[in-house]
Amino acid sequence: MADSKKELVVVALENGTVIDHIPTDKLFQVVSLLKLDSIDSQLTIGNNLYSSKQGKKGILKITDKFFEPKEINKIALIAPCAKLNIIKNYEVVDKKPLELPDEITEIVKCVNPKCVTNNEPVKTRFHVVDKNNVAIKCCYCERIIQQEDIKIQ
After folding, report:
1. In the chain, how long is the greatest CA-to-CA distance?
2. How much helix, strand and coil, in percent to the nearest 5, is found in the chain?
3. Nearest to 43 by CA among 56, 60, 30
4. How many CB atoms are located within 10 Å of the residue 78 CB?
5. What is the mean pLDDT of each run of 10 residues along the chain (153 residues)?
6. Concatenated DSSP letters for 74-103?
7. Is the pTM for the entire model greater than 0.85?
């Protein structure tokens, strides 16, 4: 009897985006945040995969989907160590680590109930005060919000 190996083959992307090195505890939060559960494109989700850098990681492969800067900033708030790979014609044409900009606008809700942004029709605006550990400061009430307390609008 021949010894046969079973393999799971994941189809290579012709065009689309791969989000790699997502912390495993943040993977489904990223899926929800980007509303990937309601897209028509092919979506491959891998979780608890081996990573020499992180131990375990999550990965998302989305066919024919390219993210806008605002969506990329949302990912960076949740998973700042993730990497974004843009695929065209089966080739990686752009590979970059996510990086928070110096300022975040209209993405995060201030956690201070007395902040003007929670009581008046004012667009939220935050300065990023710590890109490594993700901490942002409201430009209006000056409340500092740590990553675990960030509420995406």
Report:
1. 74
2. 15, 40, 45
3. 60
4. 21
5. 56 90 93 91 91 88 93 92 94 92 94 96 96 95 95 88
6. HHHHH-TT-EEEEEETTEEEEEEE----SE
7. no
H or E element in which residue 15 lies? strand 15-22
- Judged by DSSP in three states, 27 sits in helix
Distance of CA 20 to the CA centre of its chain: 9
Contact present, 61 and 43 (Cβ < 8 Å): yes
- In angstroms, the CA 96 to CA 2 distance is 44
Residue written as token pair 């605006």: 125
Residue 145 structure tokens: 């919000």
What size, in residues, is the chain?
153
Residue 3 exposed, middle or buried by CB count within 10 Å (0-12, 13-18, 19+): exposed
Give the C-alpha separation, 131 to 68, whole Å: 20
Q: Report how far residue 58's alpha carbon sits from residue 82's, in angstroms, rounded to the nearest whole number.
A: 9
50, with CB counted inside 10 A (0-12, 13-18, 19+), is exposed
Positive/negative CA dihedral, 108, 113, 114, 117:
positive
Contact 65, 39 (CB under 8 A): yes
